[in-house]
Write a structure and sequence with these properties.
With 370 residues, the chain is an all-alpha fold. It has two domains: 2-123, no CATH class; 128-369, no CATH class. It is 66% helix and 3% strand. The protein has 14 helices and three strands. Strand 2 (220-223) and strand 3 (228-231) form a beta hairpin. The radius of gyration is 24 Å and the shape is globular. It starts with a helix and ends with a helix. The relative contact order is 0.12.
Length: 370
């Protein structure tokens, strides 16, 4: 009897070891496969995009965020398995091996799905003109800023003024959604883009955990498991259009934050809706000022001090609104997200400087074409 028990324990231990080895093998295999451009492109265009399109059709048939139910379920399963593992340490070796085996199966499954759904996206090339190292000339960066500021002032003056210190937009998110659906097809004319998909069913979801997201500094997020673009329902009017376009950028296959920001900028600047324009230009002018500060802090101080009154008022209102949500939770999440992005070969959340580089490249490309 004891011999049979020992044999069973050994079999379970062997299964656990094999499952762990499979997990390590997955990491190595995906690292190799995704580094080969042709294989990566094939997986993205022939596997990931078609599956995402199918999942989008399913999840869009529901008006609530299916992905948040999925995350909650995954969290509960993972938490339950970890608790069982901790408890098993006070029991027999058989219980430890048994629980660890199922925990590893769970981790293996989630990792496998994630890598095909989203991990592969970080390795593909999307923006062809961004291959080489960019040398930014401060003088040209200021020219771009001045152009962007002029556009921002122009569209800001088109937006109906109200007595409130917080800017209010007349359009709603559904109108921004329809505008994006039309604008996305303008990407057809660009030769420096590849490995992305058009959204046949552009559809946003308002997150159930929006209040929590405010405290974590989240304006929106893309769920790769359910292919959903989720928005924080408590975003200010000024933030919502740019955030919607950004999350749709992720849904189209622009994985990095900088690329999704750039796509939002490119399409938003083409819109005929001044509210979308202003949301985009507002973000770009302050991002550009942040980049200019490195070479000329005095210029930035003077611009902030002498900013257009309406834009200055909008910035003050934005800072006051989000300031009440700042704290340890926001700082902790920001650092965790920063480390996640860096692990996927991105520049992190501390500075989306790549976004400025892409605006710079677009400006230079337009100049060369002219």
């Amino acid at each position: 009897m004891l011999v049979i028990l020992l044999i069973n324990m050994q079999k379970k231990l062997n299964k656990t070891i094999i499952t762990f080895v499979i997990f390590i093998a997955q990491i190595i295999l995906f690292s190799i496969l995704f580094s080969i451009e042709n294989i990566n492109d094939f997986i993205v265009n022939k596997i990931t995009f078609p599956i995402s399109e199918f999942i989008t059709r399913v999840t869009n048939s529901f008006n609530f965020p299916i992905g948040e139910i999925f995350y909650l379920s995954i969290g509960l399963i993972g938490f339950t398995l970890i608790i069982k593992l901790i408890k098993s340490f006070f029991k027999t070796k058989k219980d430890i091996s048994y629980t660890l085996y199922y925990l590893l199966i769970f981790v293996n499954s989630i990792y496998f799905i994630y890598m095909f759904a989203w991990g592969v996206m970080y390795k593909k090339q999307t923006l062809i003109f961004a291959q080489n190292e960019i040398i930014i000339e401060p003088k040209i960066l200021k020219q771009i800023y001045c152009d962007e500021l002029d556009k921002a002032i122009y569209v800001r003056n088109l937006i109906e003024h109200n007595d409130s210190t917080t800017i209010k937009f007349n359009s709603n998110i559904k109108e921004y959604n329809e505008e994006f659906y039309k604008l996305q097809y303008s990407l057809n004319e660009l030769k420096w883009l590849k490995n992305y998909r058009f959204l046949k069913h552009a559809h946003f979801k308002l997150s159930w955990i929006s209040k929590m997201q405010n405290y974590m500094g989240i304006l929106g997020y893309y769920n790769p498991f359910t292919a959903e673009a989720n928005l924080n329902r408590y975003n200010t009017d000024l933030k919502q259009p740019a955030t919607l376009f950004h999350e749709y950028g992720h849904q189209m296959g622009f994985a990095s934050e900088s690329e999704a920001n750039f796509l939002a900028y490119y399409l938003g600047s083409k819109s005929n809706n001044p509210e979308i324009n202003y949301s985009i230009y507002y973000k770009s002018i302050y991002s550009l000022l942040g980049a200019i500060y490195k070479s000329d802090p005095y210029f930035v101080k003077m611009e902030l001090d002498n900013m257009h009154p309406k834009i200055k008022q909008d910035r003050k209102a934005e800072l006051n609104y989000y300031l009440k949500y700042e704290g340890k939770t926001s700082d902790t999440f920001s650092e965790l997200n920063n480390q996640f992005l860096k692990a996927n070969n991105q520049e992190g959340t501390i500075s989306y400087s790549k976004y400025v580089e892409l605006i710079y490249l677009l400006y230079k490309t337009k100049k060369q074409n002219l």
